Amino acid sequence: MSYNSIHKYLIDNRLWAFVSVVLIGWYLSPLFYHTFYIPTFDNLDSNIIWFKILAHSGMIFAPNDAIVPNMMNGLPRLSYGSEFNLILWLYYFFPAKTAYIINEVLIHLIAFASMFIFLKSYIVPPRRYYGLVPVFVGSLYFALLPFWSGAGASIPLLPLVTYALLNIKTRRDRWWDWGLLVLLPLYSSLIFLYMFYIALGGLYLLYDAFRHKRLDLRLFGALFLMGTMFLLSEYRLVYAMFFDPGFVSHRTEFDIFFQENLWESYRLALVNFLQGHVPHAQSFQQAFVLPLALIALVLIFKKGRFSKKESLVIWIMILASFYANFWDIVLIHKFTLPGIALLSIVAYVLRPRDRLLPGLLILLLILSLCAACFEYKGLHWLVDVFPIFRALNMIRMIFVEPFVYTIILVLAVLVYFRKLHFTVWMVWLFIAVMFIYSMQHSFYQTKPKEGYASFESYYAPKTFDRLLGRLSQVDKAFDVNTSRFASYGMEPAVSLYNGLHTVDGYSTNYPLSYKYTFRRVFSPFHKSHLYDIWGSKVYIASILTDKKYYQKGLKIRKLRFDIKALCDLGTDYILSPYYFNDSRYSDRVKLVTYVKGDRNSWDLYLYRLSCFEKE
Predict the structure, then answer these.
(1) 183-215 b/e with 16+ CB inside 10 Å = b?
(2) Helix/strand/coil percent split, the chain, to 5
(3) What are the φ/ψ torsions at residue 123 (nearest 5 degrees)?
(4) Where do the structural domains in the chain lie, given as residue ranges?
């Protein structure tokens, strides 16, 4: 078989379509194991619980100030977000684990289809010598990134939204382009991403108007429609922020931004550029995209194509650089950002044909630096001028990185096809290596991993069934709807998942007054700086709660919480994975029952809190 015949076979669209289906199915396959492991942080400990609580509360359409009783002694309906959210309705119609699986499958399928449509229409010009290979490469790469499930298809839909906006700008739009903009808020988040995307679109609109001496009213109308639909879908948040003086969020006293010195802020800009935001917006750019893009920037200065021998030498050098970890050393240097900026600017000026590649790198450099500005303490005065900067996480502007870096990758692949022979072989090698890397960094694992847990081991539903069965027998005062629980040494999400009502919890928007009330529970024993400057996790902060720190069989000889403060909150029971062996508390905190959990799960000790002194 000749080289041309093999080349033709390797770029065949049917082969790539088959490989895409196989790899995406393989990537998602852990979700269909009976037991699979997913991240606990900002996942099992939070958004799964929020959706589950609201879905089964009977208060989905309740007014903002209606109290949903489950968490933190009852939070206003506002704290649980909008009812116009597809993920919420998945949790309404399906069990939590099934809803999570459906959401994840949809996210990755949408990512592939969205990127495929965008790349084929606007980025990859049709050429016989590579077919749709760059389109499949970019779509597969994008689909196999780890997307944060709590934001739905916010990032996966970015290519399709951009496709629709470009169709509108170039007057090739159809009704479904406008329909996408109308329905977009149902499966994506304004606060997570699209407020920044719309702002970037507005800046482009101004640039375009300045360049052409007129405002593109169609693009303006599309961006205005997007913003309006998002504001309507988030009407609860809009009302609370601007029209409800009675609700004061704990976010108004955030002090987590503008805290770093200039050098640390620059380092964070480099981290933003190289790694994105873990775990919410990752692109694997340091491992793959940036090295390939920087090599492509050098190659575009070559007029014409390298010979086969030259191409072979170049490919050997490229592979050797990855094998020797050359890029891991080079990219983390303090001069990386100015170096890439200089190379990109030179390429942008001298190679007009390939301006999109260096232009996008410059865009990401600017976004990374702008995001880091909100870390620099020298700009803390902005909080006084614009108080919204205290509550709003402006670092999320870099969440467009997965989308932009995928375009950069595809543009680099196009350069390789133009300049080097044997590119299709290297593309297949890249897909194989990238897939292995994606599986290793996937948010779904088939084996235990630090920071990950299964639904069964984290929430321990069978253990809770036994615990609550015993509790109802030995304590007639127990009522699942009125009894209040506090967790000590474990996250409140575990109790909440199993239907208990708690005085603690994790919420990104709750009344500031409760933050101060709960602080009295642990403040005599522990000064939590994180609680003071952030405070979204309303936990008994005097003990570690993350499951990765859990040690079976551990006995606690010195309890560190204030009983009176817990009693003031109406706490009836304390739930812990540890045995309490503190004689000072023996008459106030009494063991009611104990259930031994599975090997990888919690043991559960339930204590009755005696509040007779308060009476």
Answers:
(1) ebbbbbbbbbbbbbbbeebeeebeeeeeeeeee
(2) 60, 10, 35
(3) -115, -45
(4) 1-66+83-120+130-153, 157-245, 257-421, 460-609
Torsions phi, psi for 550 (to 5 deg): -70, 135
User: What Å distances lie between residue 239 and 63, 65, 228, 236, 439, CA to CA?
Assistant: 11, 11, 14, 5, 42
For residue 196, CA distances in Å to 257, 353, 395 come to 17, 29, 10
pLDDT of residue 370: 96
Amino acid at residue number 97: K
- Give the closest residue to 337 by CA, choosing from 301, 371, 314: 371
Q: Tens of pLDDT along 515-547?
A: 999 999 999 999 999 999 999 999 999 888 888
Token duo for residue 261: 């010195």
| Cβ atoms of 411 and 356 closer than 8 Å | yes
Residue of 211, 183, 137, 409 lying closest to 296 (CA atoms):
409
Between CA 112 and CA 156 the distance in angstroms is 8
Cα 260 from Cα 241, distance rounded (Å): 28
What does the pLDDT read at residue 612? Answer: 65
Report the amino acid identity of residue 526: H
The tens digit of pLDDT for each residue in 111-133 reads: 999 999 999 999 999 888 888 99
Task: Give pLDDT < 70 ranges for the chain.
Answer: 1, 3, 612-615
Alpha helices in 216-355 (DSSP H): 217-233, 235-242, 262-275, 290-299, 308-323, 326-330, 336-350
Q: What are phi and psi of 146, to 5 degrees?
A: -85, 105
Is 282 within 8 Å of 402 (Cβ atoms)? Answer: yes
Per cent of the chain over pLDDT 90 is 87
281, 548, 574, 521: which is closest to 405 by C-alpha?
A: 281
Among residues 220, 156, 168, the alpha carbon closest in space to that of 194 is found at 156
Our CA dihedral for 192, 196, 197, 203, rounded to 10 degrees, sits at 180
The overall pTM is greater than 0.70: yes
Q: What is the pLDDT of residue 615?
A: 39
Q: Give the residues across from 605 on adjacent strands.
A: 576, 594
CA distance from start to end of the chain? 90
